[in-house]
Amino acid sequence: MSDTEPRLNLTYRPRRLRRTDAIRRLVRETEVRVNDLIHPLFVIDGDGAEEPIDSMPGQSRFTIKGLVDECLKLRDLGIPGVGLFPKLDSSLKTACGKEALNPETLVLRAVRAVKAAAPELAIITDVALDPYTSHGHDGVLTEDGQDVANDATVEILCDMAKLNAEAGADFVAPSDMMDGRIGAIRSALDDSGMTNTAIMAYSAKFNSAYYGPFRDAVGSAKAAGTNLLGKHTYQCDPANRRAAVIETELDEMEGTDVLMVKPAGAYLDIIRELRNRTSLPVAAYQVSGEYSQIHAAAKLGWLDYQRTRDESLLAIKRAGADMILTYFAKEIAAE
């Protein structure tokens, strides 16, 4: 500023701390680290090549061999954990999701293979029935077919969690949103001697429109009955903040090790609410719709891809998430 320019009589000038890159780095409050990231991965049966997922650019379904190779790459990039999600052949899906309790089901074979190849990588497995049911819902239906039967579903989830723990999962992650399932699963694991298996609860999982590409990836999007019965009777109402907090408090009381908010970007207020209320680690899932919309807008030239990607993750971290499940994890780690 020259002597001839007007000068305000200001004691505080916050722009001083934004003047150079070095100063900005010194005062930066939030950073997204590779150690904060968990990469969700999709697994299919067979020996063929990976299957690109059209609705999720850059993401694929891997056979077990390909999954192991991908996990080794992620491990070498420093990513500490992966979440595994199976896409089953439709012939294996039933109304009761019985394939979930098959000791040789796809995801259990995948867990064993990844754990054998990369024992230091934390494995998180989804505990819900939607990949296994012919109707695409997260549990078994009531007799009239108009709702999900809570207590009957929880019984199945307990057996499912034990199988996942026996296969080598470090975290079982119930994503079903049934009442009481965290306490029941904790008791089932402990009674079976698997006290070291942790629970990462999908504690505030909202009935969101952002899950579309994921449902395509696991093959539940077009399952019979999905259009007849929405998931609004068990997933959190996007309008309700206090109700979501109650869900997380119940999960904490029942013994979860990690609380999760899903989706992340549209629910930053919930992430911050949990961070202010709990001493437990808080996870946030940047879901498929969040990932795909950034890709779509960038492809059309409407957004800067890298800046938008990085800002979206920074916002989740700034809101209070200790760990982030994100499909961007690999490319972030590789940079």
Question: What's a concise summary of this model?
Answer:
By secondary structure, the chain is of the alpha/beta class.
Describe the protein's architecture and organization.
- Strand 5, helix 4 and strand 6 (171-174) form a beta-alpha-beta unit.
- The chain is 37% helix and 14% strand.
- Helix 4 crosses helix 5 and helix 7 crosses helix 8.
- Residues 224-229 have low confidence and may be disordered.
- The chain has helices at residues 21-27, 64-76, 106-117, 150-167, 181-191, 212-218, 241-254, 268-277, 288-299, 305-319, 329-334; strands at residues 37-43, 51-52, 60-62, 81-86, 122-127, 171-174, 198-205, 258-262, 282-285, 323-325.
- It has a single domain (31-334), classed as TIM Barrel.
- It is of the alpha/beta class and 335 residues long.
